[in-house]
Write a structure and sequence with these properties.
Helix content: 25-40%
CATH topology of the largest domain: Rossmann fold
Strand content: 15-25%
Order of helices and strands: EEHEHHEHHHEHEHHEEE
CATH superfamily of the largest domain: HUPs
Oligomer: single chain
CATH architecture of the largest domain: 3-Layer(aba) Sandwich
Largest sheet: 6 strands, parallel
Length: 280
């Protein structure tokens, strides 16, 4: 594996396809699943490791984000990654905080966007910059960050970016908890409480597939969430998979059921793709 810290050191083979996996480090099995997905669809795999300051609305959250470059490098090398691009802030933002940024538009007004003002603008700005710097044919993202996937796909479409977006399934531990870099902040008791997020999503999904309409499916999940009061829910909702907007009660078709909650001091998100049937 070749590790570079400057975009000027990146080179592109004259033939073959390149897949990029963009990360902020503190890698876990979910990230490695993205790498394996990239390896399966491309000749060359490039991983970026950059803690993007633009997508943090809380300076303390940025400061406390885990940074484990040596451990991350070892994991990526074991996976056969070809290039690791681990730049400093001044390589990605050479003029300091950029004056011109990408706006996520209406996607910033709901759910993750509403909970974290400016977050998706920061995500899309760095994603677009990293696409320009790494010049991939395909970029691989994780299904767990469903609203982010919708935002990136929309940006690529609306701005005519010549990069294919591939989505890898959410990786879960055996007990159902979605893998996240933030899970390391959970105490054993908090981790047990956090399982209520996936249980609620699975309950809502089962109700939807059995024939429940949107309100009834969400109610089934909300009842599960209410069983663990220590999980402080920010939202539990059904999203349109193309626009990330909340769907109406009479909606039918594919839907993303998403949740965000704080367990202890740790904020967690999760989602499942579901289908609201027309009738039982």
């Amino acid at each position: 594996m070749r590790t570079v810290t400057r975009a000027s050191e990146l080179s592109r083979a004259p033939q073959g396809t390149r897949a990029v996996v963009m990360t902020m480090g503190a890698l876990h099995g979910g990230h490695l699943a993205l790498v394996r997905h990239a390896r399966a669809i491309a000749d060359e795999v490039l991983v970026t490791l950059f803690v993007n300051p633009l997508q943090f609305d809380d300076p303390a959250d940025l400061e406390g984000y885990p940074r484990t470059l040596d451990a991350d490098s070892a994991l990526l090398e074991a996976e056969g990654v070809d290039i690791l691009y681990a730049p400093d802030v001044d390589d990605v933002y050479p003029g300091g905080t950029p004056i011109v940024t990408v706006s996520a538009g209406a996607i910033s007004d709901v759910f993750e966007g509403a909970s974290r003002p400016g977050h998706f603008d920061g995500v899309l700005t760095v994603v677009l910059k990293l696409m320009h710097l790494t010049r991939p044919d395909v970029a691989v993202f994780g299904e767990k960050d469903a609203q982010q996937v919708i935002a990136v796909r929309t940006m690529v479409r609306d701005l005519n970016v010549p990069v294919e977006i591939a989505v890898a399934p959410t990786v879960r531990d055996d007990d159902g908890l979605a893998r996240s870099s933030r899970n390391v902040f959970l105490s054993p008791g908090e981790r047990a409480d956090a399982l209520v997020l996936s249980r609620a999503l699975f309950a809502a999904d089962a109700a939807a597939r059995w024939g429940a309409a949107v309100p009834e499916a969400l109610r089934a999940g909300a009842e599960v969430l209410a069983s663990v009061p220590s999980a402080r829910v920010e939202y539990f909702a059904a999203l349109d998979p193309l626009s990330a907007q909340p769907v109406r009660g009479d909606y039918r078709g594919e839907v993303v059921i998403a949740v965000a909650a704080r367990v202890g001091k740790t904020r967690l998100i999760d989602n499942v793709s579901s289908h609201i049937a027309r009738e039982r």
